[in-house]
Amino acid sequence: xxxxxxxxxxxxxxxxxxxxxxxxxxxxxxxxxxxxxxxxxxxxxxxxxxxxxxxxxxxxxxxxxxxxxxxxxxxxxxxxxxxxxxxxxxxxxxxxxxxxxxxxxxxxxxxxxxxxxxxxxxxxxxxxxxxxxxxxxx
Length: 138
Description:
- The protein has a 5-stranded parallel beta sheet, with helices on both faces.
- Helix 3 packs parallel to helix 4.
- The mean pLDDT is 93.
- The chain is globular and about 35 Å long.
- The longest helix has 11 residues.
- It has one domain: Rossmann fold.
- By secondary structure, it is α/β, with parallel strands linked by helices.
- Helix content is 33%, strand content 19%.
- The chain starts with a strand and ends with a helix.
């Protein structure tokens, strides 16, 4: 199984940014452990702070990956173009969030992406990504 994790804006700051919400572990450290745990599978990773580059990554993944795990960060609540890119590809996308967006500020309660996603996992910290991997490999 080949899985691509795509992280959006500000997620390159994990471990340093709002640690009370996102925790102290860097995504790179988490990803290393995730890859070891699922060594029989390929887990690739892409991160960008730029909306159009996230769209490009989704389009490039078509036909190359069995599944995509997407945490679009703040673009979750605003990006029609990322939603359109998700809808344009046949590769299933699972939307993930480290925190529960429903327990945060009201403007975060709506995901523009959820209707185009296979499902959404939120609120389990970085384990949200592992749960998404389990969906694909389980």
